[in-house]
Every structure is written in C-alpha cells, then in structure tokens.
Amino acid sequence: MPAPRSGGRAEARRAAQGKGGGAADGASGGRAAARRGAKPKKNVKKIVAWSAAGVLVLVAGAGGAIYFKLNANIKSFDADAIATDRPPEAKADADGNKPVNVLLIGSDSRGGNNSDLGGGEDGGARSDTTILLHVYADHKHAVGISIPRNAMVQIPSCKLPNGKWTKGGNDLFNAAFSTGGSDNGNPACTQNTVEKLTGIRVDHTMVVDFNGFAAMTKAVDGVDVCLPKPIYEGDINPNLHKKGNLVLPQGKQTVQGQQALDYVRLRHGIGDGSDIGRMKRQQAFMSSLATKMKKEGMSPTNLLPLADAATKSLTVDPGLDSADKLLSFGLSLKNIDMHDLKFVTAPWRYRTQDANIDLVQPDANKLWETLKADQTIDGQNATGQQPDAGGSPSAAPQQAAPSTPAVPAGDASNASIKVAVYNGTVANGLAGKATDLLKGAKFTASTAGQAASTKYKTTTIEYSSSQKANAEKVAALFPGASMEPGSARGISVIVGQDFAAANGVGTSSGSTASSTPGAQTPAAPLPTTVTNDARSADDDICANTTYGSGG
Questions:
Q1: Does residue 63 carry a pLDDT above 50?
Q2: Which sign, positive or negative, has the C-alpha torsion 161, 167, 168, 169?
Q3: 328-368 pLDDT, tens digit each
Q4: HEC states along 387-440?
Q5: Assuming Cys at both sites, which of 33, 291, 300, 503 could form a disulfide with 29, CB separation 3.0 to 4.6 Å?
Q6: Sheet bearing 535-536, strands edge to edge
C-alpha cells in the first residue's frame, strides 16, 4: 500500500482550464512554489467551511429583521448549470413524507478576504471536503456521507463560466468544484458529479467559505473538540521544518476562529497524516457543533449574529435562494435527535498505482442503495410511514413481556459489559429495539447494523472465551436465545425471528417497509466496514478522531 500523498491541490487545478474532469495543462509553480517562499503565517489553510452550512438549519424559527438580513446575504448559482439527465426525485408516501438530500461543500476560495484566513495565494477554489447529508423521510434521522476529495470518479459534462460545457472524464472528485477556475467554484459541477456517482437526486446544495466558517464559530462562542496529541506550528505548516510553538494542546478544548480553522484543516502530526484522519476530525467537529446548538437553542441574543455569519459566505442552489425557503427547510429538521445524526465515510481504499483513492464496490453502491431505500445504517425503517398495525401480528404490537429483563434493571455492574447488536432478519428496526432493551438493563449496548445473514430464526449470543459469564447475563434478556463461543472479542447479539415475533414485528418482506405505499424496497445489509466506523453526533468527542499510525 503506498504512503498517503502529502499534496492534494495540484490535481484540482487541472480542471481550471475547462477540459472536462481536469485534463488541463500542468501549471508550474502555483501554490506549492508560493508556499516554499512564504512565511509560516502565510501557509495554505484548508478548511471545512461546510460546518456553517450544517448549522444553518438550526437558525430556523426567526422572523422579522433576521428574515430580511438573511435574504440580503444569500447568493445562488445558475440553475442552467445543473444537469438535465438526473436521478428521479424521491416519491412521497401516502402521508406526504419525503427524504431530502443536501450537498454540503466547503470552499477554500481565494476570493474576498479568505486569503487572510490562510487561503493561500493561488486563484480559484477547491472543495477540500464534501458531505452528502441524507435527511430521512421521517425527519427524525439523518446521515452525512463524507466523500474523499482524492477519490477517482467520473466527472460528467459541466457548464463553464463562459457558457460552454466540458466533455467530462475520469478525475479526482475535488476537481469537479474547480472546473472553470472561478473564485466562486463550480458547485453545480460537484452536484452533477455526486448524482452521477450515487444515483441519488440532490435536492439542495450549500457552499460555505473560510469567512463564514470563522465568523460562525465565533458567533457560537467556540466549539468543543479533542486531540489525541498536541499540535505545533510545524504540524500545521510542514514547510516550516521545525517543531515551532504549540498551536493546539492535547485533549479537550474549545476552539473558534483561526484555532477552529487549524483544527479542521489539520492533517500532519496525527495518525498517518492522511485526509481520511482529517475527515474523521471534521465529522467530530460537525457533531460537536450540532450538539451544542441543539442543547443551547436559539436565543434572540445569538440568533442574528449566527445567521448573519453563516449566510454572508453562503452560496446555495436556486431552490434555497431566499430566507423563507431556508427557514422552511430548517424547521423541517428540528426533530432530529443527536444520536440519530450519523456520519460515515464512503467505503474506500488506496490505489496501488498512484496513492489516490478508489471507492470500494459493491460496498459503496450498497450504501447509496440504503439511502435510496430510506433505511438507516443500523437497519431501521425511516420512510416516515410505518406499516399499518393491521398488516402485522396483532397479538401485541408493543408486546415486550417475553423480553423483560431477567436481571435487575439497576445492576450497575452491567455498565461494564459492552454488547454489539446485529439484526439477523429482514425486519427493520429490530437491532435498535434490542439495543434499547439492553440499555434498559444498564448494559453498554450499541447498534451495529445488519448481520451477515438475515435468516436467523433464533436470537444468538456470540461471545469470546473470557466473556461467557457476562454473555449469560445478556442471554437472560432474550428467552430461548442460543449461546455460541466465537473468535471475535466481546459479546454480540444477533436478534432473530423469535425476537421479532415477541415484539409484534413480522419478518417476511411483505411486512416490512416495502409493503407500505410510497416506501422503498429494503436495501441489502451494509458491510461492517461502513457500520463499524459510523459516528453519532452524541459520541465522545475524543473518540475516532484519527486514522492509521505514526505522526
């Protein structure tokens, strides 16, 4: 496996000449040359300004002066640049529930005052990070999919600033945003590329730059983050060739403005120095920011500066080009619980030929199909309309008596027992129900998603040799469950059809979401490479913030 590349900008410039997916003449010098002669404080600052876009949805609920101020700030891109050959829109169910897909793009544009925040000296704009946020039809769940910027993908024909269209071709993903070489970037080209890649219709696109991100983190009085190691000037700017002064200490801390920029753009000095580790920290930052806003709410004293900071540097698709449209969209997300806001990275692997990234198949396509089916990554049905009670066993739709904990619910020792829960059937939501049952008995349980097989008739408890006694305590919650020793560490519960029947849930395909008008056919189980790496917005901010070894 080749070592992670240390650069990452040059490939985006190839698109600046308007030759499809980036097949342009190589530029000499450029940012790398400028950086070699620059002072440390002038080094390139890469930033994930889409954080401001994600928080924008939380400023909903305002009116009056805020409405007019937002309206004056918002910019939109040309609707004619959006491809005409697009995936179909998602169909609403009988209750009018419909999922929404939002593309969040972080621009490191050199225009305006962005270079003062570390944007460098090159022109144009790049999309260092892109997240496809899928808001499920029930508007109680959402998942953000990070797409690696140096993944090799097919970039379709895109419109240039001069009105002409490129031929398209294979290139690195972040070259799409640079197509045309404009300081405003090409969000429509990135949207077209995501739709081509995923087969998912993008309903809205938001682009936020350095200025919006920095101002927004100040408006919320900082964001809590965590670092596994202290970070020095030499980590922020490797061209400094010395350790330098401390920039960010190890452990938990609150950052805003320039420090927030340094955190989310940081790549060197932690893990293997790759973009994968940086994406993990960006997901942690986004989670922390959303959790803070959800917890503190929007007061009259902080709502206006937050909204103003976010929208001043915001570019949106024509469908969100006014304050009332943004407000309506924001209000639709108010019921998402932080535990049900997830972040994952599209399945990937390093290429052997050039150290860039390929998306792994069929894993990536299974992820896209899961979103299109409106099924959460842990196997729950989130279509918004649940199957009618008359279509499933009527004995006890909420019947939990067969699964009543046999151990004391207040047994504090259970908290030290960690359990991963898998769904071994085709019925949606069973793993979540079993997780809740275990948590009710004070076990430390987490929903891990679908099992490798969906044909488990009996719930199975798998355990390592040292966990037999603990596994027996877990099994007491699932009458009739079988116990099997395994080679994997810890304890796993694979719920079967017996658990489904005990909870009044059918396990045939006819009783799942596919029988509901407007619902999608359940997707194939997601691989553990996706589910095991997922982050919930309420996870510990110190967990899962790096990738690889070294540094």
A1: no
A2: negative
A3: 676 677 788 899 999 999 999 998 888 899 999 989 999 99
A4: CCHHHCCCCCCCCCHHHCCCCCCCCHHHHHCEEEEEECCCCCCHHHHHHHHHHH
A5: 33
A6: 75-76, 314-316, 204-208, 100-107, 127-135, 142-147, 341-345, 535-536
Q: Are 500 and 427 in contact (CB under 8 A)?
A: yes
pTM of the model: 0.67
Separation between Cα atoms, residue 266 and residue 283, nearest integer Å: 13
Element (H, E) at 284: helix 275-296
Render pLDDT for 236-255 as a digit per residue (tens, 0 to 9).
888 888 999 999 999 999 99
- Do β-strands 127-135 and 100-107 pair in parallel, antiparallel, or remain unpaired? antiparallel
Return d(Cα 153, Cα 148) in angstroms, integer.
10
What is the per-residue pLDDT for 305? 67
Distance CA 551, CA 44 (A): 20
Q: How far apart are CA 99 and CA 381, in angstroms?
A: 12
Please confirm whether the linkage preceding 362 is cis (ω < 30° from 0).
Answer: yes
Interior/surface letters 173-197, b for 16+ CB within 10 angstroms, e for the rest: bbbbbbbbbbebbbbbbbbbbbbbb
Residue with tokens 């488990």: 456
Which pairs count as long-range contacts for 201-204, CB under 8 Å and 24+ apart, including other chains? 201/86, 201/87, 201/88, 201/89, 201/90, 201/101, 202/101, 202/102, 202/103, 202/132, 203/89, 203/100, 203/101, 203/102, 203/319, 204/100, 204/101, 204/102, 204/103, 204/316, 204/317, 204/319, 204/320, 204/329
Cα 400 off chain centre by: 34
Contacts of 215 (CB under 8 A, 6+ apart): 309, 312, 313
Which residue spans within 10-167 are E strands per DSSP? 75-76, 100-107, 127-135, 142-147, 152-155
| Predicted confidence band of residue 215 (pLDDT cuts 50, 70, 90) | confident
Token pair 């260092």 is at which residue?
Answer: 128
Selection from 268, 307, 285, 344 nearest residue 50 by Cα: 285
Contact 313, 208 (CB under 8 A): yes
- Under DSSP, is residue 212 helix (H, G, I), strand (E, B) or coil? helix
Confidence of residue 514 (pLDDT cuts 50, 70, 90): very low
What average pLDDT does range 60-88 have in this prediction? 75
> Which residue, chain included where needed, has tokens 């309420």?
538
CB 501 within 8 A of CB 393: yes
Determine contact, residues 164/289, Cβ cutoff 8 Å: no
